[in-house]
Amino acid sequence: MRAFMWTFDANRGHQAPLMASSVEPKNYKLHLSLSEPNCIRRSRLLTSNFLLLTSFFCLLTSALCLRAAAWRYQVVEVKPHVFVWAPEDIRDQEADPEYDRAGSAGFVITDAGVVVINTTNSPFHAREILYEIRARTEQPVKYVINTDGAPDHFLGNEVFADLKATLFSTAEAQSQMRAYQQQLVRRLDGDDELSAAMRSFHPTPATETSTDDWTLHLGGRDLKLISVPAGPSPGTAVVYLPDAKVLFLGALYENGMIPRLDSADLKGWIEFLHKVATWDVDVYIPGHGPAGGKRELAEFQRFLEFLASRPGPTPAEPAPHPKWR
Ligand SMILES: [Zn+2]
Questions:
Q1: Predicted TM-score (pTM) of this structure
Q2: What's the 289 CA to ligand 1 centre distance in angstroms?
Q3: Cβ atoms within 10 Å, residue 299
Q4: Looking at the chain, which residues constitute the CATH 3.60.15.10 domain(s)?
Q5: How far is the CA of 9 from the centre of ligand 1 (A)?
Q6: Ligand 1 center to residue 118 CA distance, Å?
Q7: Which of 112, 114, 121, 199 lies 20 to 30 Å from 243 when distance is taken between CA atoms?
Q8: Distance in Å, CA 250 to ligand 1 centroid
């Protein structure tokens, strides 16, 4: 008699039988029937089957979790101790449907603490980021910097506020976050579907602001918050790490997606991108998508120029770029 156990083949993506050919001694049945009453034997068989079934579900769940972790998001160390968290471009079911595509985020690990730049569109994704930080360091998360007030970039703030991190943004971005917080209360009123999707959300605006450019010195690193007069929303800023030559552009750059334009000053936005292309930077972190270099930034800039040259409605939501997908 052979015993079969089902397992999940994460590479092939389906269940495949794993055969265990030598798990049973030849005289197993005989031994049972001679030494134990039938009821005990049945009980042992039931227990054995139950354990086998439990093992199967544990294996299946583990395999599915591993598979999910492998493609739901990626974390890349773009420069020493500078990480980018980029989610797969899918629509989140448990999110504000107007902002259901999670934004990219980053974290910088220093000897004096961790700085998180943007927190995506939900506390669920923010916990994924926190998990990745905890896998790399025991340093506390001291600061969160939001590059703008867009909900898909700040709705994970609450996770880091719980850890007593200081939440920083421009004053205008903070106003945007507060406005969203108030609008959401009105939108949730009487909307059961939205209330269910956002039952675990506690929108948490930035707690500290500045109207001027500002530099955070932490653990021997400088993170410069630089306000940008143009952009898809008021109060947009970028975060520059001069020593690493990394620039977090937030909503000003989408790598492989159509940007949210809203009431943007497109001309000023394009001019700003021309400007940062000449900065001493070799890694540009977008609001959505993976990190890019100067070539990818130039492609986005040309795409924005193409959009600016065509009158008519522009998409309200970031969507896959038809050319790049
Ligand atoms: Zn966004």
A1: 0.75
A2: 10
A3: 16
A4: 80-320
A5: 35
A6: 10
A7: 121
A8: 7
